[in-house]
């Protein structure tokens, strides 16, 4: 049984989500503000967090910033349709995905299952000693470690998975929808912006000049690909 933490200041929303998740067999922990959520994370074994953006006191953006200092647990933002800017900001500070209110239960369940699959697979002891090298970037998949020109760089789990997928297929361009399918292990639900934000954030970590990338290249009309750093776009 997997433990899921719901954090939203609207108790009706928390109750509705609890019904959906318990129907799928999950154990549910409830918080109504960011501080409560952080306290639960410190004392319980949580595998996934559903986190509202707009909350009094510590909002969702600040809460996930604090979560990322102590945990790599997947976080799905709960957002209103009018919060597009906050969605992007949330992805930039470490959220893995988002769902929009009012919720489509099928979509919510699919995204929860997708994030849990990826999280448990990454942390579940896949010990194949696999090294991927492209230009100055190296991935040690056994250690889940990425280096750039010999220096270790810190990636979120989602950034790591995107980089690994593209490095496994050097020179091949993939659409945002295909990247989402391969990395999130789920069908895309209007996810082009989600992928683009993670790509931009990944570039900030692996490129010396993110505005003129050497490695993570955009291919007009096709998507993104990884090059060895010496080839021109």
CATH hierarchy: architecture of the largest domain: 3-Layer(aba) Sandwich
SSE string:
EHEHEHEHEHEEEEHHHEE
Strand order, largest beta sheet: 2-1-3-4-5
CATH superfamily annotation of the largest domain: Response regulator
Please tell me the overall pLDDT: 85
Reported by name, the CATH topology of the largest domain is Rossmann fold
Largest sheet: 5 strands, parallel
Structure description:
The strands form 3 sheets. The protein has a 5-stranded parallel beta sheet, sandwiched between helices. The protein has helices spanning 11-23, 34-43, 60-67, 84-92, 105-123, 157-167, 176-184, 192-206; strands at residues 3-7, 27-31, 48-52, 75-79, 97-100, 131-134, 137-140, 145-148, 151-153, 216-219, 223-226. Helices cover 40% and strands 20% of the residues. The protein has 2 domains: 3-123, Response regulator (Rossmann fold, 3-Layer(aba) Sandwich); 131-226, Winged helix-like DNA-binding domain superfamily/Winged helix DNA-binding domain (Arc Repressor Mutant, subunit A, Orthogonal Bundle), CATH 1.10.10. The protein is an alpha/beta fold and 233 residues long.
């Amino acid at each position: 049984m997997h433990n899921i933490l719901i954090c939203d200041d609207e108790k009706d929303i928390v109750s509705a989500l609890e019904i959906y998740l318990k129907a799928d067999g999950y154990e549910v922990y409830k918080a109504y503000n960011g501080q409560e959520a952080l306290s639960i994370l410190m004392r319980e074994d949580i595998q996934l967090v559903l986190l509202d953006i707009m909350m009094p006191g510590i909002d969702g953006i600040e809460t996930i910033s604090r979560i990322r200092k102590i945990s790599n647990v997947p976080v799905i933002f709960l957002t209103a349709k009018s919060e597009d800017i906050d969605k992007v900001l949330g992805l930039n500070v470490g959220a893995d995905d988002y769902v929009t209110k009012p919720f489509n239960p099928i979509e919510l369940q699919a995204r929860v299952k997708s994030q849990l699959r990826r999280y448990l697979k990454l942390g579940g002891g896949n010990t194949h000693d696999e090294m991927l090298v492209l230009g100055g970037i190296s991935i040690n998949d056994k250690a889940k470690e990425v280096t750039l020109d010999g220096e270790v760089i810190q990636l979120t789990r989602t950034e790591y998975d995107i980089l690994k997928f593209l490095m496994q297929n050097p020179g091949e361009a993939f659409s945002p929808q295909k990247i989402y399918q391969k990395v999130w292990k789920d069908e895309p639900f209007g996810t082009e912006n989600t992928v683009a934000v993670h790509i931009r954030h990944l570039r900030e970590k692996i490129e010396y000049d993110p505005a003129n990338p050497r490695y993570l290249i955009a291919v007009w009309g096709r998507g993104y690909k990884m090059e060895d750093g010496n080839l021109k776009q």
